Each structure stands twice: as C-alpha cells, then as structure tokens.
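Sample intake sheet
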Amino acid sequence: MFKDKNPFFSDEYLEELAKEINLQYGAPIKDQMTDPIENDLE
C-alpha cells in the first residue's frame, strides 16, 4: 500500500518494523506477563 507511493517504506523496513512491534506488544515476554496492560483498557 504505502510503499507504492512512498519509497521510504520498503519491504525490509516494514519487516523490521513488524519484528519490533512483535517484540514489544505481540510476544509473551516477562514484562508483559508481570505487568499486564490489558487491564488498563477495561
């Protein structure tokens, strides 16, 4: 989508970005398990 109009967002960049987001929000890491952020949404 974006990469067609904006060459800054290359496949490599988006892939690395996805990995970072996965590490911070998607992966079940210790920080998330000891300090759940889902409770803040309720």
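Comment: The chain is about 60% helix and 0% strand. The mean pLDDT is 68.
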